[in-house]
Structures are given as C-alpha cells and as structure tokens.
Design goal:
This protein is α/β, with parallel strands linked by helices. Helix content is 38%, strand content 19%.
Length: 330
Amino acid sequence: MTATQTQTQYNSNIDTTKLSTFVDCPRKYFFEYELGWRPELPDHNLIFGEAWHAALATLYQIGNEPLGGMAPIDIAYVSFLDVYRQHFQEHTDDMYAPKSPYLAYEALQNYIDVYFSKDVTTYEVQHIEAVGYVSIELIGEEPREPAKLYFRQDLIARNRNDGTIVSIEHKTTGRADRKWYQQWQLNLQVGTYTHALYFLYELADVYGVLINGVVFNKKGPELIRIPCVKILPQMYSWYETVRYYLTALHHEKQVLSQCSEDDSYLRAFPMNPNSCTKYFGCRYHDFCCAWSNPLRYAHEPPLGFKVDFWNPADQPKKQTIDIIGKMIYE
C-alpha cells in the first residue's frame, strides 16, 4: 500500500483538534487522522463531554420556561441521556463517578441557578453549535490554495447590555489545576473562535471567548468561567502560529504522498519523543517503538483499534454560519 492509496480513505478537513494533535506529535497525528486508528472502546471523557454539550445546547435553545409540562432541567437532562446512554448503560454509572449522570443532573441544577438564570436575560443567542471554517494563507513563495480551518462554536451570544459578542465554550474536566486554567489563553481553538467572530461581527463588538467550565470531582460539581480576551497584536501572533503549523502539516502530507510501504522508514510525520509520556501516555507509543515504517502495517488496524475517520465538516450542528473566506490581519 502506498501513502497515496492510504490518503484516499480519509477526509483531509482540518480543525483545531487535529491541528493541536499535530503540534503535540506529528506521528500521533498520522496514526489518528491519516490512518484513522482509534480505540474500539468508547472514550468516556469524550462521550460525557458530548452529552454535557447536548444538555447545555438544549437549555439555551428552549430558554428558562417549562415546555410541554417539563422543567428546563429535565428537558436538558433527557438530551444528556440521549447521547450518554448510547454508549454507557446504568450499571456502569458508579464506575465512572464523579463523571456520572446523577452528578450531571446536580451540575445542571447548579448551572441553572448560578449562570443560566442570568444568561437568559443578559445574552441574546445568535448561534448554537455553529459550524464553519476560516481560511488561512499558507507560508511559501509559490501561490497556494488557502487552508481551511474548521470550527464548531458551542454558543455565540450578544450581550444585551453593551452589544458585545461572546463565544461561550462548554468544557468538562475532572480536575481544574493550574495547567487547566492556563491552557486557554494560548489555546489554538480559542484563537480560531475569536478569529471567526471578527468575520461575523464588527471588530469593535467582539468581546472574545468565555470558557464555560464544569469540574466534576468527589466534592461535587464546580462551575468555572474563564474570560479569554485577545487584542489585535495577540491575534496576529495566533495567526502566524496557525500558519506555521498548517504549512508544516501541508508539507508532511506532500512528503507522505511520496512514501511507500517498501521504504525502510517513514520520512513523513516525524515523532516527538517528548510527548510520549505526557499526562497518561500515548496510545500509539508501542507502535512507534516497534515500527520504523508503519505504512507496512496500515492495511488493517491493530487489535483493540478500529478505523474511524474524523471529519469536522460533517459534525452534527444546530445552525450553520456563513462560510468565511478572507484574512483580516493586513
């Protein structure tokens, strides 16, 4: 199998999740997004986060009034369970505590009391789960097609008091330590959302991004909101950073197209050894240790893995915003 044959099996649309993986380790990106290898077992943190997103999307869609005889919290909780129970049944709930459905219900109640009851009067919802992309000019002397960087924003709202626009992004975590707090200010996703807002609204009206976090721990759910406001020089810096890594990703794809399973080693998507043991370790660590050229083994996924390609352009959405196709930092 050649790399070109492999490439026909996946969709090359890039979002900040993919790009961040590439920044972390290009070889990890290769396994996860070029070959599409993902664990067969569902990722509980991922599914729980998706279920929480569904619950909050429902809340902001229906407002703070009962509907059909049901309270908003119960309608939102049904949305949570609709996603969560597709993968995890009741007998597993205690296994994954404190990220469990019964604590999710408690977190919803706290969220409604602390934030949502005020949000419905403070903010006018503009978009829920808005999908689009921004065009990024790649670095190089030869003219190239701009790269498309896809995004999905959880909630875009206008502040009724001052008219400013904010992107409210729902995040869940089991532990909010210093690293968790600090990651958002330089996060590629946060910059992409801010960049997108500049195209949708007047520059002076854009407030920025608000990280809408919930910490699920043994003491009970904890609510956190972190404002991420970027002035123009910071957006210049974000843009050049994204250009650099998207150009590097584009280059690795070109190199991959010239590689073959007959090569003694893979020249594309080099490894970043410093990332192998970060956090809970890398699921592809053993493959990197054993295979100099993983293309030789790309015909089928290893035991415990499946082929599952991620295409950000095809994700479920409540609303679709206009496609964005120009650059403002000139």
